[in-house]
Amino acid sequence: MNDTRNDRPLRLALILAAFSALGPFTVDMYLPALPEIMNDYGTNASTIQVSLTASLLGLGLGQMVMGPLSDSYGRRNPLMIAMVLYILSSIGCAVAPNVETFILLRFIQGGAASAGLVIARAIARDRYSGVEMTKFISLLTMISNVAPLLSPNAGSAVTAYASWSGVFVFLGLLGILLTVITTRGLEESLPPAKRVPSSLGAFMRNYNHLLRDRTFMGYALVNGILFAGIFAFVAATPFIYQNIFGVSPQVFSILFAMNGLAIMIGSQIVKRAAGRLFEPLILRLGLTLSVIATSAILIAVLANGSLATIVGSTFLFAVSIGMIGPVCVTLAMESHGQHAGSASAILGTLQFSLGAVISPLVGIAGEHSALPFGVVIFATSVLAFAAYVLLIRKARTRSGGFKNADTKPYFEQGD
Length: 415
Prior knowledge:
xenobiotic transmembrane transporter activity; cell membrane; 17 helices; transport; membrane; Efflux_drug-R_Bcr/CmlA
């Protein structure tokens, strides 16, 4: 009987991780093919990177729509509609006649993929709270970050036997699989009695309440700014690793995948520490690690350091993301269960919108310079730390939260 109960969180985490993985697959899988797409459309690196920006904007803005819809109409039906749209836009990307159409379809594809991300977090909040939610979100993060391990390698494998358009055919097939999973394996977690009104006015009031919550926005900004650093890495490394350091697409895929492994390690640390280690302390440790790691990246770039130094430093930065993400999501959503979809939407929208703004900056000096990347990724850590101090710590100190919490021992007895 115990085994059955213990299997349920894992089964749910596997299903939700599959939907969470759709975002990384949408963003990452075509990265090894960026130079080929650039050549086929007869354009330049900056224009092709706009397609990445478009998908990130779609992933961000789409969540602002899908989150409230899932609060009003339940989790399953909006997810089903989004999967159908994802399938159609993926096939459209594969046959896009020009780069402008390709970029537009990438935006639509990102918007459809956003449903998996925002609704997965909302379902987690429907079912869990407190330390159990921290552990579940950590498990979900750990499993879903298999996607960055697999997606570039899957992209390289597809382009080894087909043109880059084969990547988007593959993504369309993935959308079909997730539609089947939604139909057969995902139960509704939000009963009609707990749903909120579907009017535009209600949506706006919910968002206004969340945006005015200083502590919630602090966690959302810390999480969003640091994830923007990951997107800067995503946009920059195909050109830094392949054009500056001369690695092959296959080696790039392996180096890129290491960061997915690093996020898994960070989330596993949180999963084991939750309930024993004070959660704000985990957040502070993660922020400190991110500042140290990104400082090392900037120094390596300025000093024309080795590939190994940059790879190692970005690995540590990704570990810090794995530590910070689950804690920020849990603490941000803890007191907003009634509007879990809207709260999840703001968390996700900040991640992808900030990523969309920041990612083009890494290419402003051309495809043979790593300096903008070093500056941008260091700035994300500094800004996230500043958001923590100004919004979270100040608000907690003013309310006495940190005073009370900091008198607790850092380690508490586990079960």
